[in-house]
Amino acid sequence: MSIWEGDLPGFEEIGNTFGNLVKSIDDTKVISIEAGYGRGKTFFRERWAKHLQAEGEVVVEVDALLSDHSGDPVLTFIAALVAALPENETATGKQLLEKSKKFGGVALRSVLRLGLRQGADEVIDLVTGQASDAIGDDKEALQGAVEEFGDGLSKVAGDLIAAQVIAERVRTQEIPEQLKALRDALTKDAKNKRVVILVDELDRCHPDYAIAFLEAMKLVFAQDGFVFCLFVNADYLQSVADHRFGKLGEGEQYLDKFVDIRLRLPVDEDDLEAATRLIALSEMEVSILFGQDDQFSVEHAAELAAKLAVLLKLTPRQIRRILRKVGLTLRCYSDRPVDASLLVYLAFQSKEAGQRLKHTSSSSHLPRAYLTPAVGEKIAKAAENSFQRDLVCEDDHRLKRESPELFALPRERYPLPNDGRDYYSWAKLKALAEHYIPSHQDMLDAVHSIEVER
After folding, report:
1. Closest C-alpha to 20, from 50, 51, 43, 47
2. Are 5 and 203 in contact (CB under 8 A)?
């Protein structure tokens, strides 16, 4: 099976391009691959991971949402690296993980809170430079050194400085040593010493954890041989950062502080249209066609869905949800004659599509959707005052011109008396209009009322 099988949005070429970029990186880089919700980030990440592995890259995938509850992004990263180790390296990995957990206390928390130093910066810098290497992580001895420089600092202040010094030692020595050991173990049989870490669902995490995750990645994991690829909704992360830190200057973006290269995950309109058409054909099966004209075929409904999806700029997720509802409706009402194209037209006016289609003319999308109950009444009233009852009014002319398929339906589609009479076209339209759109809308609404949204 092809790695990119089912690639309806057409991401394979983008995967090749992004892959070439990764291969060109020898140091450390953070890359963001940005798209809105429902635009295919997770699909791309899953396929791209396999693509990179097939190209000989060492890939580690991290679902940030699964670790949101832990509150410790550093341990999340290291645990993911350990889990990816070959079987013969698991013992070493477990030792490193246990050591990381020990650092997960005061030291690592301090690493991520270096901004809390406030007015003690000079003393901390002095102690870091002169006492850290000699004392190591012996906190009591370090406290003594702090007191010598602190000029009567309180014990609380001394403890804070000591924690910062230990944290700096962990960040600059202990963690880099662990990461180098993990990288070497992961790339032992690889053709290069690069580990590609793909991070998904960060924009669905608690805001505080998402920000801590970014800070830890840049502050702690900026080590050669690690390439981070973040799959994010950048607008959401930016709004979170603005709320927490306030807006930056004009033209400045919060992500720019942590990301070296920002890329967009585009969806080509032609690919989106083709994908929608395929999804529609796979979802829709009509048991009783509303009419025999090609305008009532499933193929016509799929073509309409493809055009509306592009017109409304819907996400792949929205498109799937809408077409799934249409397909479910067709299955639930398989004992009735159904106009699949009309169902598609009405479904794309639903809440899922943002109801944007209502503000456009129906004639260019599905001309027969013009036949509302109100139009039927208007045609009937005009007929009452017409001497040429087969040529009633402009509405009648319009439907004959744009929707001739409505005049060639099986007789049972028009709820008229079964008296053998040949009724005028306006009478057929009037009878049809009373239930044509309302009955299809009722079917969609009934399915909506029982379907659990996903």
Report:
1. 51
2. no
Of 229, 225, 234, the residue nearest 255 (C-alpha): 234
Q: What are the residue ranges of helices labelled H in 36-154? A: 41-54, 73-83, 90-103, 106-111, 121-130, 132-135, 139-150
Q: Residue 209: what pLDDT?
A: 84
Give the sign of the dihedral formed by CA 249, CA 253, CA 254, CA 257. Answer: negative
Q: Do 443 and 321 reside in the same domain of the chain?
A: yes
pLDDT at residue number 133? 46
Tell whether pTM > 0.85.
Answer: no
Q: State the Cα angle at 406 between 401 and 409, rounded to 5°.
A: 140
Mean pLDDT, 10 residues at a time, the chain of 454 residues? 78 91 90 82 91 94 78 78 76 58 43 38 42 47 53 56 64 76 86 91 83 80 87 82 72 77 83 86 94 96 93 85 94 96 92 53 78 89 66 76 92 85 84 95 91 66
Query: In the prediction, which pLDDT does 107 show?
Result: 38
Partners of 230 in the β-ladder: 32, 199
Residues 314 and 256 reside in one and the same domain: no
Query: What does the block give as tokens for 11?
Result: 């991401």
Instruction: Please check whether residue 184 lies inside any domain of the structure.
Output: no
* pLDDT score of 259: 86
Which domain covers residue 314, as residue numbers?
Answer: 269-450
Helical (H) or strand (E) element with 20? helix 12-23
Residue 286 vs residues 334, 337, 442: alpha-carbon distances, Å: 7, 8, 17
One domain, residues 238 and 273: no
CA–CA distance, 29 with 35 (Å, rounded to integer): 20
Q: 240 and 209, same structural domain?
A: yes
The pLDDT score that the predictor gives to residue 157 is 59
How far lies 124's CA from each of 97, 117, 160, 396, in Å?
A: 29, 8, 9, 86
Q: What is the pLDDT of residue 105?
A: 40
d(CA 302, CA 277): 5
Return the closest-CA partner of residue 430 out of 367, 375, 369: 375
What sign does the CA torsion over 443, 445, 446, 450 have?
positive
Q: What does the angle CA 308 – CA 314 – CA 315 come to, to the nearest 5 degrees?
A: 140
Long-range CB pairs of 65-68, under 8 A, 24+ apart, other chains included: 65/201, 65/202, 65/204, 65/205, 66/201, 68/205, 68/206, 68/209
